[in-house]
Amino acid sequence: MSDAGPEVPPLAMDALPLGRWSVPRDAERRTDQDLIATLRTDAATRVVLVSGGRLAGAHDRLRLVSPADLGLTNAAEGDPGTPLEWFYLGRDEESSYLALALPPEAGGVPIAAVGTPDERISADERVHAPTHGDAQWVSLRESGHLMSARDAGLATTAVALAAWRHRHRFCPRCGAATHLSEAGWSATCTVDGSVHYPRTDPAVIMAIHDHEDRLLLARSSAWPENRRSVLAGFVESGEGLESAVRREVAEEVQLEVGRVQYAGAQPWPFPGSLMVAFHGWLVPGGEAAPVPDGVEITHAEFFTRDELARAVTTGEIGVPMRTSIARALIESWYGGDLPEPA
């Protein structure tokens, strides 16, 4: 298949906020059954508090706390019924890092009031993050790009593991409850002993270029009226990534893509995707006018760089948040940061 289109450099790692990671994951220690208990008594351990997609922190950093700061002394470790669950995130030269997953509703209350007692915790015990400074619940979606590589990596993994556990608490074989094992990286059935691991769903996201090097942007039916982004979709069973790119574009806007080039990838733990980014070019001589399917996609059009800059500046369209790989793809084509709305 012969296609037009230049080679495009891959996305830089600093353009993929949730793909950054500086703390070694230290996977070999996960099989130590006493690891979590040991680290909870270590003054050097630091804990990431996570509730749904939110984390204890400030707008640009995590609020890492020591286990002693939490004021929790007798949580039911490994009890399938307890809402408090721990995950080992890794260690660097300074600390070992744990995540403590609180119920999703905890993210809607002030940090100082966070509390999750269970039947083995006295009624007056609560989990507290330090109340000094600017501690609050922050959204990983909104703040991930502002965090350091260390904090972004810890936060992304904590949110991903907590989301997996929240959605998969029972054995898919027999329906019995499961308990966390391998320091939070697996769940073991309490009846048949089967072991289950965190699920990651691959999805493709693609910057589609036409013969004039314009970029295709579209609106999903679920979005606000002015929002636009590049196309994306889940990879189907038995399908390769490049094939998924071509299928999704054909299904959603009735365009035929020829050459496809890998651009980069980053996790998107809402709840458990891996976004694999590509550039794609229309087949020379083929249809060049997008036709939205009217179900998933309601609007689709190609933009020149000048047209996109004007539309963003005037507020005619809104573009993806900086934490997303969609934003990185758009700005890679644009040649730099998009302008801010006037």
Automatic annotation (TrEMBL):
It is an enzyme of class 3 (hydrolase). It catalyses: a 5'-end NAD(+)-phospho-ribonucleoside in mRNA + H2O = a 5'-end phospho-adenosine-phospho-ribonucleoside in mRNA + beta-nicotinamide D-ribonucleotide + 2 H(+). Its EC number is 3.6.1.22. It holds the Pfam family Zn_ribbon_NUD. GO terms for cellular component: cytosol. GO terms for biological process: NAD+ catabolic process; NADP+ catabolic process. Keywords: Hydrolase, Magnesium, Metal-binding, NAD. Its cofactor is Mg(2+); Zn(2+). GO terms for molecular function: metal ion binding; NADH pyrophosphatase activity. Residues 198-325 form the Nudix hydrolase domain. The keyword Protease does not apply. NCBIfam families: PRK00241.1. Belongs to the Nudix hydrolase family. NudC subfamily. This is NAD(+) diphosphatase. It comes from Serinibacter salmoneus.
